[in-house]
C-alpha cells in the first residue's frame, strides 16, 4: 500500500524460481542489495510447467526445452545430462533406477516421457522433495537422473557416452531459462530487480 509523504515504507519483493535455479541462488549483487529491501523473499517451489508461475510473485524464472513465449526474456541455455554417482555407474542395469522429483515436476514428466518413448524399462528408486535431496540421493548412488549442467553437484557426474549407449538412454536437448515478462504497473523496485537478475543470471 502507498506510504504517506515523508514516511518510508518497507517494500516486499517476492521472487519465484524453478528448482534448478535454486542451486545457484542468490547472485552476489542481489545479496549486497538485501539491506535496501529487507522483505525480499524467494520461493523455491518447482515450476510444474514452463508457462505456470506463482501469480503472487513479482519475478519468476522457469526452464524447459520449449521455445520461450512472447515477452519472455531468455537468460541462458544449458545442456541436460543423464547423471549418477561419480565412479559408481557400472552396476546400473534395467529397469533403470531413477532418482526424481515428484511427478508434478515438469522434469520428472519429461524424463518418464523420454524413456517410455525409447522403450527403456525404469523404476523410481527414490523420490526427492527438492533438488538438494535429489542431489544427495544421486551422490549416494541411489540411481540416475537428468539434470542441467549447473545443477550437477560434487560427487555426481554425467554418464559417459558408452554407459549411456549401453543403457539405451535417449539423447537430451538443452534447456532454456527465461525471465517472465513485466506486469502492468510494475513498481520501480521490481523493474530494478528484474535487470539485476537478468545481468547476474544471464
From TrEMBL:
The keyword Transcription applies. Residues 34-71 are annotated as: Disordered. InterPro entries: LTTR, LysR_subst-bd. The keyword Cell cycle does not apply. Keywords: DNA-binding, Transcription, Transcription regulation. It comes from the Bacteria. One of its GO terms (molecular function) is DNA-binding transcription factor activity. Residues 39-54 have a biased composition (Basic residues). Residues 65-201 form the LysR substrate-binding domain. Residues 55-71 have a biased composition (Basic and acidic residues). Pfam families: LysR_substrate. This is LysR substrate-binding domain-containing protein.
Amino acid at each position: 500500500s502507498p506510504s504517506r509523504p515523508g514516511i518510508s515504507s518497507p517494500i516486499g519483493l517476492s521472487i519465484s524460481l524453478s528448482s534448478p535455479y535454486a542451486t545457484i541462488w542468490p547472485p552476489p549483487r542481489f545479496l549486497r542489495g538485501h539491506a535496501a529491501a529487507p522483505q525480499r523473499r524467494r520461493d523455491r517451489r518447482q515450476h510444474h510447467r514452463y508457462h505456470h508461475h506463482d501469480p503472487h510473485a513479482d519475478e519468476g524464472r522457469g526452464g524447459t526445452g520449449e521455445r520461450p513465449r512472447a515477452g519472455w526474456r531468455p537468460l541462458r541455455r544449458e545442456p541436460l545430462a543423464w547423471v549418477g554417482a561419480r565412479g559408481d555407474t557400472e552396476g546400473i542395469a534395467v529397469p533403470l533406477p531413477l532418482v526424481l522429483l515428484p511427478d508434478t515436476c515438469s522434469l520428472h514428466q519429461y524424463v518418464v516421457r523420454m524413456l517410455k518413448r525409447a522403450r527403456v524399462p525404469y523404476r523410481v528408486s527414490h523420490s526427492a522433495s527438492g533438488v538438494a535431496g535429489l542431489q544427495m540421493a544421486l551422490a549416494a548412488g541411489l540411481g540416475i537422473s537428468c539434470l542441467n549442467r549447473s545443477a550437477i553437484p560434487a560427487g555426481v557426474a554425467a554418464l559417459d557416452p558408452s554407459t549411456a549407449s549401453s543403457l539405451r538412454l535417449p539423447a537430451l536437448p538443452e534447456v532454456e531459462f527465461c525471465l517472465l515478462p513485466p506486469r502492468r504497473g510494475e513498481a520501480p523496485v521490481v523493474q530494478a530487480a528484474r535487470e539485476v537478475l537478468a545481468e547476474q543470471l544471464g
